[in-house]
Model the fold of this input.
Amino acid sequence: MKEVAVPAAVWILFLSPAAAILAGLLLRAWRPRWTHWPILISCAAVTAAALSLAARVYGGDWGLDLPLGSWMAAGNWEITFGVRVDGIGAAVLAMVSFVGALIHLYASGYMREDPGFPRFMIVFHLFYLCMIGLLLSNNLAQLYLFWEGVGVASYFLIGFWTRKKPARDAALQAFLVNRVGDAGLLMAVLLLLAVFGHTRFQLMFEALPETASALIPLAAFFILWGAAAKSAQLPLYFWLPDSMEGPTPASALMHAATMVTAGIFLAARSWPLISAVPGLPALVAWVGAATAVFAGLLACTQSDLKRILAYSTVSHLGLMAFALGLGSVGVAVLHLVIHGFFKATLFLCAGNIAHGIHKSTAGVSEVGGLWKTMPLTAACFVLAAVSLAGIWPAAGFYSKDAVLHFALHGGAAFSAAGLLASFLGSFYIFRMLFLTFLGPRREQNAPPMHEPGGVMAGPAAVLAAGSLGVGWLSGSMERLLASGALSPPQAMALPPFSWEAFAAGSVPAALGVAAAWLLTTGLPSWDWDWRRNHPGLASSAASDFGFRRLAGLVPTGFMAAGGWFGRVWDKNVLDGLIEWSAEGAVLAARVGAALPAHGLNDYLWWVAAGAAVLLGAAVL
Amino acid sequence: MGWLTLLWLAPALGGFLVFAPGKGRAPRWVALAVSLGVLAYSFWLLAPYAPGEGGWGLEESGAPWLFGIQYHLAADGLSMVLCWLTAFLTVVCVLSSWEKEVPAGYWAAFLFLEAAVLGVFLARDLLVFYIFWEAVLLPMFFIIGVWGSDGRRKAAVKFFLFTFFGSLFLLLGILCLVTFHHAATGTWTWDMARLDGNSVPPSAAIWVLACLLIGFGVKVPLVPLHTWLPDAHTEAPAAGSVMLAGVLLKMGLYGIMRLGFGAFSDLTWQILPWLAALAAVNIIYGSVCAAVQDDLKRLIAYSSVAHLGFCVLGVLSRTPEGLAGGTLQMVNHGLTTGALFLLVGALYERGHKRGVGDFGDLVDRAPWLSVCFAISVLASIGVPGLNGFVGEFMCLAGITRVIPVFALAGAAGIVLSAAYSLPAYQRVFWGEPGPSSVSAKISDLGALDKAVLGVLLALMFWIGLCPGPLLAVIEPAAAALARAPSLGVQP
Done:
């Protein structure tokens, strides 16, 4: 805590999006088609401010952790609003603001013709604002505020096309699954508050060695629970693929920058708390490894472009959790940043294709041979795919290599998981690449495709360049993560280069490319044949190996319980008892009809008399 | 006659005044003037008073009467915010009914209701408290029974008899407290701040407490004493539902805070896990039932059962944050549920239906209506940044410090509240209109509705982001209740 004053850049990060949202709301009524202008300007301002903060952290021994004002207080605890800028925060913030700004630009082109354009841009920017607030929070309760803000904004974005039933269902599912996670995070906030009397990260970390409380391990577990839902880890991952029903820019923003990374960020931010609990890091590693492999397998079986990417995101989030669990916060954050670039590129490319056929997404059966008509999109896709597969010298290589380095030192099971995830990632993305851009166009009478305008092509190109190049900055990134006066530096180090990890990363990646090539061009109908020939396998894959059926039991059970309690028990038993006793009383009264009617009238008189007495007393 | 008396007497007299101008639109102007005047007066009177000993601010009492009965009013932070809520919601009710074709009696009923509720929150003598408590039933009975919808008669009688049944237990409990106190000390008092449950013989204590809990529990309502609420809400006019959920339910909780637990310090600590389990059942049961309701008003009614469960958890913790959170959550629930009932009322007024499946695709047709509804739902399900979160969070923070396990019930409630609210919101405002849809008739909110809801939404954001000023009013009283070994404060 070297600096006391809050730099202007921090204020810009909060106030510029807030002002842009207000301006957008006003413009919505007056000039709806201009709504995006204040928002794009705000994106530029936010990006500049975030980069300047990152440069400042990078440049010297500078960090910021300041309470700004009180939110709520009672008894002997207080929750404040505050900001924290440190190595992790600055690194993720820089990526999120930059990639997010480009996706905003893309969205302003992609959604231009939609009647809900102003509404979309405003909620989109709210999403961005909440993520920035989340990254800047210096305490867990404030982080929870923005965490839920991100969830709410994503709900309205996924369900943006309110007339599409799958979109509505996906929005609800996403919000509810995330709420299950939020409940966990809320528990963590409550428990930490009960232990410490506040939830400020820095003070909690400092007080941790002297605090012995059985609630802390519980709180750490609940933090991971929340992170697992937001970052789509097993078993709470299934909302993310379904959220593809939203408009593509929203998917891109969710996957690359503003939503799913929040869970990994939360775990990285709270790592001193989590790593202090024996067994929890191993749990994180296992869940991450299982998620990476499970979702990687499923990504290979998808036949919708955006769903392939969605499962790929789940798989990569698994890799980030894997790296975290193996003890390297630095590698996890590095992969988070690099993943943001290549995943955003891939989504923008998929969006360009879907936009070309005027749909919200495209199936692999509707595309093919697109490199001729969409060469720029194809080139961007290739760069991002190479990066995702972790092939040298693209950016993905650097972070994936580092993850593998730790996996190889983590025992046979973790090594196998790392290698398998690496192979699967390379396979599914090149399968998608080959099916989309090579071969014949599978739908014969489809409209001709063309490149989108510059507003949409430009951001994809810049992000593709990033997918290629940001890895070369990983040395600087390591320094950024470890600098800032507040970061615990020990877990930030990236592993040194080793040929062993290089081979472990490159060989499965190359095998994946080769396998994808063989199956898509050597056996062009393979992708359709195996579904026909093995319907059992196909339906198993379609239900995520049965997982979805299992998860579907929860809402069914809930509604069944509701139906029984709400319709049968409450009405017929609880209320029934009362109604029957009332009717019994009426019956009894009719039987003894001679009784005078001590009804409402008498009662009224008594109340009136009481009121008169009261008035008399008042006058006295 | 003192200043506090004027606070409840003014709306009561206003209720008679409404009849003076005769027919036409004049009565509603009188009602508006009176309710606005009472609101302004309540702030003018109560806001400047710094809490004194035990958190009490203003006090006013007449001479003791038979058996120590005394006309005794007092206000602490707890009373103050609930008085403000009552006065504010009365104005909201008057404005939201502005275009209704109703006789003067309608406006008078709301003013009488306001008077009685204010009396409940101001009374310190238990007999005075009980008289006001019962007086509340009358105007509400007429509001439901005369101006309600189709099943209004049955609902009104059920409301009346059910809550009256609870009141008898309350009266019994109060009488026991007073007589046992007399037996132990030789002095008669009905002062709720001086009655001490410790003078009740241990063998009788659990029964006296049970009487009080049944009496208050019907109003809260505590499961399984809640079945009057969905019927009453469904049949009441929109403004009636606003008052019912907004302030009438709060009377039960207010009573529990004043009497139920403080009086039985040791006993309530012993049976705390059971009571907390009851609150947890309220949360889960209310949510589960709400999820299957087809009528929007029934859904909100069951959601009130769940939300009040949070308040009970906070109050039970008897920590400053739990008591303050419980009080704040009473205000919050009044605002958000009030807004929701107004919006459902607006839908009903336009489409004459209020089923979850009777609408659809309103986002573009009625943007203000749908945005206001969405924000109110978000506030209701406890999204931070809006008011519901602050109250529920503080309640849960309180219980976490005492019995952490019950925070899980709250966390489950957070998930379930989304699970019953958002599907209903989606079905009404999103999607394609169904075959029975009346969406074509739904026009957007008028200017007056926009203004009323705008104020409600502004308050939701304000309390959500900056609850400090309200908490500052509540906290001394909450801290005093948390400290007190017996009721309120020792003389």
Remarks:
- The two ends of chain B are 23 Å apart (CA to CA).
